[in-house]
Amino acid sequence: MASTKYSIRELEHLTGIKAHTLRIWEKRYGIVTPKRTPTNIRYYTDDDLKKLLNISILNRNGYKISSIVNLDHEDLSKKIVSLSKQSVDGDNNIENLIISMIEINEAKFEKILSNLIINMGFEETFLKIIIPFFEKIGILWQVGAISPGQEHFITNLIRQKVIVAIDSLFRPANLINQKTFLLYLPEGELHEIGLLFYSYLIQKRGHKVIYLGQMVPFNDVLEVAEKQNPDAFLMLFTANLQSMNIEEHLNELHQKYPETHILTGGFQFKINTIKVPPKTIVLEDINKFKEELHLIEKD
After folding, report:
1. Is 134 helix (H, G, I), strand (E, B) or coil?
2. CA 44 from chain center: how many Å?
3. Residues 8-167, CATH architecture
């Protein structure tokens, strides 16, 4: 993969270092030296990004920039590792996860994430670290800074963590008022990390989940629903549907099961105005989901 070219504004978004501050550090300390295109436009490289992410972590944790610039690469790495061991600071760890993704460093990623889960618990780690991490990945996608291989690499590692967390849940037998949730991604939808986390939250409350996974044909959903009679459906829309649009999908599901709760959400609801049928709730965030889960439990 060719090295990505970053503008100073893109570095600001990715590192948290203000563009004005970065320019001052460049002139005063020479922390990075931007290159120039044939048309004389300044840009920064992957190595610049990794270095500035590390500098941002140390600076935020009390190290003065005047002392950071005197550290060689090995000393800089040692201090970063030391901080990651003793701290569960969100920004520090998100930036370290980004570096491990860029480097495709599974051992580093695993070490950081495992340490966070031990200290914060799985749910808090997902909410405070993984979700913001994926938001940063979105920025990296926009500027062309990561390849599909890097994205698949990191997504698969996180997917494994969520599945392990689900498998580790204690499931009480004969739970009073246990509900059944049917979870799936419609045809064309592959991004299942969010759906898996919803599955974790539901099962953590002791309810039953029928998890159909990715790219499920609508007729298959109806066939399973007829046999299982779920109390609620939950599906997410990230990509554009090809076989049927989102409104058609939700309306047909409601027509087949007018008294069943439908929970939905995803990126498409953020960028489009989508009308939903009765008893259908759009989940803006995890707090909204928890509210709806509580209402379904009382139903």
Report:
1. helix
2. 25
3. Orthogonal Bundle (1.10)
